[in-house]
């Protein structure tokens, strides 16, 4: 990239091409390296590889660009010394710049070698501190009406010394720095102005929207979108009063700002009169102190960042240890509760062991007492006891059988009685039964038991009230169902 024209940074400010001049101690050494650097000749260049040739060409291009920038600096320096102005047509290209410099500084025509990267030997050196205050021209100058004559000039006086070059470049660097600061200030001012303009435009647009909404709400009719004259006049009067109040408020603020400005200017004049005004050296000292304070602030900020990192790591370690401590504390509490429960369980077991031991002793004593009593008592033999138990069991079994037989006989007797009553009611005609019903209700049926003398069996006889029917039943004898049916048939035949 050529540096013949001033580079421009991303933010639009001009970049200083001499930023590599870090300090005053190494400037002369850097320029000596630039001017005394040697490049390979044609034969050596042809012997190199393609990559090396490209690198050398790139370095040579950088040297040429640097020398072109140096030529531009010389032209500016010449203009600053109120030299005759060079036409704009001569400043179009690096070659024209060299020609213009030669036109200004030479007393003879420029040699026909535009590709040379250094000033020709016929150039006149500009000498003096910090760029020199005078330009030493050739001893021969073209005077009107006189013939041109060449005079011999010392070769050492025809070049700008390295110290003067460094001084001029340093001065150019300072000028570019000042220009950059000026551009930055102008850019900041323009940015503030544009920001204020945008804010004002945004605020004004909001106000217009609010006024439009208020106009639609207060003046326009919702149905027809038309406005009456009275509403419009009322709205305009109200808006005029609001604008007047706002204007009065702005006038008050402007008056206060003017008073503040007047007071500040008066204080400044008083300081000037008292000799306490700030001078350039004061501002430079304040700038240096501000720079030192900024450096200290940066160091403190770095220390603060380190301390924040250390504190963060410490807090993280502390949190980890606190978590571990909380876990151990919870484990300790759990173990303490477990120990307490186990101690209570152990005490309860000990009490139970004591009580069981005492109960065992009492049981042993009681057992011994019972054993001694058992040995002292005389009991029958086991065979007799078993025989008695077997006999008792047989008797209980026989008793159950007889009880069951009695229950069965009673049931049979009740069943036979029911059958007899049913047969008696079924065999009588309906009328006779109705006539005799009253007498039967008053005279119950007769039954008596008789026993045969030979066999000793008891027989029960059932007869009705008239003694017409007689039924004989024997005790402890199962009823005969067939006999009941024969009686029923006999009744029917009769």
TrEMBL record:
Coiled coil, from the record: 159-186, 247-366
Protein name: Cilia- and flagella-associated protein 263
Renumbered residue ranges of the record's region Disordered: 427-465
Stretches with biased composition (Polar residues): 450-465
Residues in the signal sequence: none
Amino acid composition bias (Basic residues), ranges on this chain: 432-449
GO biological process, one term: cilium assembly
Residues in CCDC113/CCDC96 coiled-coil domain copies: 241-413
Chief location: other
GO CC terms, sorted: axoneme; ciliary basal body
The organism's place on the tree of life at top rank: Eukaryota
InterPro entries named among the record's database cross-references: CC_CF, CCDC113/CCDC96_CC
């Amino acid at each position: 990239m050529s540096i013949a024209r001033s580079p421009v940074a991303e933010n639009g400010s001009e970049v200083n091409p001499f930023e590599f001049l870090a300090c005053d101690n190494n400037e002369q050494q850097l320029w000596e390296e630039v001017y005394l650097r040697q490049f390979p000749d044609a034969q050596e260049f042809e012997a190199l590889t393609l990559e090396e040739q490209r690198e050398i060409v790139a370095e040579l291009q950088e040297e040429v660009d640097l020398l072109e920038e140096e030529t531009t600096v010389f032209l500016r320096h010449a203009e600053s010394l109120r030299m005759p102005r060079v036409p704009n047509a001569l400043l179009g290209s690096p070659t024209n710049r060299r020609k213009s410099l030669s036109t200004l500084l030479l007393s003879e025509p420029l040699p026909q070698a535009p590709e040379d990267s250094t000033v020709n030997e016929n150039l006149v050196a500009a000498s003096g501190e910090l760029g020199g205050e005078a330009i030493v021209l050739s001893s021969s100058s073209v005077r009107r009406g006189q013939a041109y004559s060449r005079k011999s000039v010392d070769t050492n006086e025809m070049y700008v010394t390295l110290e003067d070059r460094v001084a001029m470049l340093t001065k150019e660097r300072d000028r570019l720095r000042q220009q950059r600061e000026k551009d930055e200030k102008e850019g900041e001012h323009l940015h503030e102005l544009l920001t204020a303009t945008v804010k004002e435009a945004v605020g004004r647009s909001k106000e217009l929207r609010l006024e439009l909404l208020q106009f639609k709400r207060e003046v326009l009719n919702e149905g027809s979108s038309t406005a009456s004259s009275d509403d419009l006049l009322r709205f305009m009067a109200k808006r005029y009063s609001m604008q007047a109040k706002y204007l009065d408020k702005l006038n008050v603020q402007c008056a206060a700002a003017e008073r503040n400005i007047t007071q500040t200017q008066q204080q400044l004049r008083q300081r000037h009169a008292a000799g306490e005004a700030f001078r350039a050296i004061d501002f430079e000292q304040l700038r240096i102190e501000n720079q030192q304070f900024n450096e200290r602030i940066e160091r403190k900020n770095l220390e603060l960042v380190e301390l924040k990192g250390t504190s963060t790591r410490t807090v993280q370690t502390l949190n980890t240890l606190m978590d571990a401590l909380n876990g151990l504390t919870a484990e300790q509490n759990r173990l303490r509760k477990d120990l307490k429960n186990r101690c209570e369980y152990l005490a309860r077991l000990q009490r139970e062991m004591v009580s069981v031991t005492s109960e065992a002793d009492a049981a042993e004593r009681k057992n011994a007492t019972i054993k001694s009593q058992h040995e002292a008592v005389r009991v029958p033999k086991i065979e007799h006891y078993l025989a008695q138990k077997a006999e008792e069991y047989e008797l209980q079994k026989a008793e159950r059988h007889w009880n069951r037989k009695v229950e069965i006989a009673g049931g049979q007797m009740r069943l036979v009685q029911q059958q007899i009553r049913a047969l008696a009611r079924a065999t009588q005609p309906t009328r006779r039964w109705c006539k005799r019903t009253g007498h039967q209700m008053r005279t119950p049926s007769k039954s008596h038991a008789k026993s045969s003398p030979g066999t000793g069996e008891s027989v029960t006889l059932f007869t009705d009230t008239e003694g017409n029917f007689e039924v004989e039943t024997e005790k402890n004898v199962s009823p005969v169902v067939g006999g009941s049916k024969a009686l029923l048939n006999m009744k029917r035949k009769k």
